[in-house]
Amino acid sequence: MGKLFKIIAGILLFIVVVIIVVPMVIDPNDYREQIQATVKEKTGRDLSINGDLSLSIFPWIGIGINDVSLSNAKGFKAEHFAEIQQANVKVKLLPLLSQQVEVSTVVLKGLRLNLAKNKAGQTNWEDMSQPASESAEPSVSKEQGTSSGASSDVALAAIAIGGLQIVDANVTWNDASNNERYDLLDLDLTTGALSLGKPMGVDLAFTVDSSKPKATVRIKLNGDLLINAALNKFDLQGMQLAIDAAGEPVPNGAIRIDIASHLMADLSGDGRLTLNPLSIKFDESTLTGNVAVNDFAKPAIAFDLAVDTINVDRYLPKTAAADGRAGSKKATAVPPPVAAALIPVETIRGLDIDGVFNVQSLVVNGLKAEAVSLKLLAKNGVLKTEQAIKKFYNGSYAGKTTIDARQKTPRITVKEQAKGINIEPLLIDLTGEAAISGVANIKANLITRGNTVPAFKSALNGAVNFSFQDGAITGVDAGALMKQGEALLKGDLTAAMIEGDGKTPFTDVSGSAKIINGLVKNNDLLVATPVVSIKGAGTADLISEKLDYDLMLQRTKATTDAEQADTKDLKNIIFPVKVGGVFAKPKIQLDVQAMLKESQNEKIEEKKAELKKKIDEKLKGRAGDLLKGLF
Predict the structure, then answer these.
(1) Are the C-beta atoms of 295 and 271 separated by less than 8 Å?
(2) Strands 461-474 and 439-449
(3) Do residues 433 and 423 touch, judged by C-beta distance below 8 A?
(4) What does the pLDDT look like over 364-407, one tens digit per residue?
(5) Which residues, including other chains, have CB under 8 Å from residue 394's CB and lie 6 or more apart?
(6) Strand pairing report for 180-191 and 159-175
(7) For the whole model, what pTM was predicted?
(8) Which partner for 47 in 39, 148, 188, 562 could form a disulfide, CB atoms 3.0-4.6 Å apart?
């Protein structure tokens, strides 16, 4: 037994001597040239060790480096491929005896990494990549692989790292083939103890600079991260992400976004990502709710989100002309080319989405809405939406849209209904002007096919019903047209040139339209005004944008005694009006020929009635039989 104690004591003494003597005898700086030569042999690069190398044995086995750089590949501008001001890592000695690995905080300071691609498409790290030969790879059976995987999990679980500290790291990506440059600047990362299965604090911050487009983004992230032993499940609790972006592509030049959530990512199986709960604050808006993504290969997305208030127009691009214009019409988003594809067919075919989106207050394309809801369902190439607005210009709106992209040519079905809408402020907000005012009720049931504006127009079919109350039509002055017609019948050519104020007030407007392959047909337009009743019928061609419409104006009553005396003989005459031209420039004018014909027919009928009365008086009621053949 005494001999055993002596052996153990000898071993302990040897260990102590090694711990004390080795650092004193072995100086890692003595191997500086050997290390540099080995790197040169293996990579063809020059490794410069300008600072001291340090070595420790007990209680931590560790190594530290200072002021180290690796040269760049030939033909690239930057002098160095990588530089490190300071790095050190230490492993606790005694736990190694029981197969436990305890690592101190890994420190990396002042990293400078220059990644580049030249005009020929070659990168500055390709020369260092040496694929392993097949002969060097060990042959592992399926059973061995499984055993190895299991043992790896056990080994990882036995590793405890005191933390990771990266300070002042910069990474540059310079792509000469695309004339693009991105800089990752001031990267700082600090973590708590890295132990699998236990949460660790994470604090990350960095800045990204882009040359094309010119932009700067500052990102800060912190939270508690838990990673399982298999390294396929990540749970980031209390996540706080702050994004400060500025530059050309950023709406209004700058934006701050604050995101708070509980993020869970499961990489096992098909994969799953959840953000629940989720809160995003930007400008004056706050978005809350939850999002889930299943199956990363074919993502199935589910969401339930709500926004308190948002002005979408702040984030839409505007035309340069609209931005510089100080006139009446408002700036609008840049429209797509007329022949451009409007529906991303391939994207829709791959969508798997089931979500609800609610907005308390919304502004989009100048339109204002409150209590907005959108239900979205996309699966197997069919995208369906149900949208509703409870408060929309003193009225409400509800609609359903279906885009069927399963075939080569997409098919679109739209059902919409607007009730009690104050149409004038809506049109002014949307286009900057309004051709009609009043309270509108509109119901539409439409279907079309295609993927361009011309195709939509030519394939459009359906029906529309509409009514307006207590408003006015701008661009048509029914009263002035009546006066022109009356003046012409009286032979007063001067009065016939009167133009009026270009507006027709009305109490009611109603009608319906059928759309057949882009041709809108209306045969039942009725307009009631204080002095004129109007009937209308005709067509509007959505493809050629041509108008072919007839209006029939008839005085309903005289507003004054003088007018009543002047129009006594004209009040029953119908004044026809032709509407032609195109949508952008309609032509509205009296149909003089039809009007004169109608006037003469009216006078003939009056003469016939007068003659019949006189003859009837003389023939004592027998005039009707005698005049049948005459008239």
Answers:
(1) yes
(2) antiparallel
(3) no
(4) 989 999 999 999 999 999 999 999 999 999 999 999 999 999 99
(5) 420, 421, 422, 439
(6) antiparallel
(7) 0.78
(8) 39
